[in-house]
Specification:
mainly beta; TSP_type-3_rpt; signal; repeat; calcium ion binding; two-stranded antiparallel ribbon; calcium; single chain; Laminin; 286 residues
């Protein structure tokens, strides 16, 4: 009869090996987490490859035949998944490194040792400024700097409070200094810029940036490259206050943005949209 060698001293296999009896002999196989020929098995350091499968913000610690994962300081989880701890309301920072945030703008009142930008001291401790803008780079945020651009003029009397211009040149006399005026040679106190291209509407040949000059655009302030004009009144559908009723004068007596030609003041479903332009006049849509 066959002798089961595995019954005595694990068949001569390593303590970290599995002994399997075979007819007239036995096989030795290192168990998971170990490597070798079965007679001699050495531990595999799982942490050497891909942090042992632990999360990027976890510490992998090798153990006999396995490894453990533990989240780093400032993180919480099981080591396989680690999430950043959040500072409590009224505080800012990263993980466990938190300090008071008096103005609740996400930046702490004092400098912290953590690396995140939200660990840097708030440049306006008592005035919210989540962007931390600092035009003159003096360490005092624009929101609380009485001379934000550092040109020697208080913001209250500076015609370009965020761009240094000690000479205060204002060629078009619109109260906006030339260096910050989006139309420096055309007076435009409002500084309106529909397409946001940096050129004020007063001096922009294509206000809505739809590729058509204002003089040839049937909606000069609303981009409409196809120039659709369903009622043929010279006003594009996108800016026509009665797109389905010809009204070249665009009259709107009650100034409700609905032209007189299509304004009957009837709103059957009381949803704030008059029947003449309501796609469901009998069913309120909010």
């Amino acid at each position: 009869t066959d002798v089961d060698e595995c019954l005595v001293a694990n068949g001569g296999c390593d303590a970290n090996a599995l002994c399997s009896n075979t007819p007239g002999s036995r096989d030795c196989t290192c168990t998971s987490g170990f490597t070798g020929n079965g007679l001699a098995c050495t531990d595999v350091d799982e942490c050497l490859v891909a942090n042992g499968g632990c999360h990027a913000n976890a510490q992998c610690t090798n153990t006999a035949g396995s490894r453990t994962c533990s989240c780093l300081a400032g993180y919480t989880g099981d080591g396989q998944v680690c999430t950043l701890l959040q500072c409590p309301v009224g505080f800012a920072g990263q993980g466990q490194d938190c300090a008071q945030d008096s103005d609740l703008d996400g930046f702490p009142d004092t400098e912290l040792s953590c690396s995140s930008k939200y660990c840097r001291k708030d440049n306006c401790v008592n005035r919210p400024n989540s962007g931390q803008e600092d035009a003159d780079g003096d360490g005092i945020g624009d929101a609380c700097d009485t001379d934000a651009d550092g040109d020697g003029l208080l913001d209250t009397s500076d015609n370009c409070p965020l761009i240094a211009n000690p000479g205060q040149q204002d060629g078009d006399s619109d109260t906006h200094g030339d260096v910050c005026d989006n139309c420096p040679v055309v007076s435009n106190p409002s500084q309106n810029d529909v397409d946001g291209d940096g050129a004020g509407d007063k001096c922009d040949d294509d206000i809505d940036n739809d590729g058509l000059l204002n003089t040839a655009d049937n909606c000069p302030k609303t981009a409409n490259g196809n120039q659709a004009d369903g009622d043929g009144d010279g006003f594009g559908d996108l800016c026509d206050n009665c797109p389905q009723h010809t009204n070249p004068g665009q009259e709107d007596a009650d100034e409700d943005l609905l032209g007189d030609a299509c304004d009957d003041n009837i709103d059957s479903d009381s949803d704030g949209v008059e029947d003449s332009v309501d796609n469901c006049p009998n069913v309120a849509q909010w």
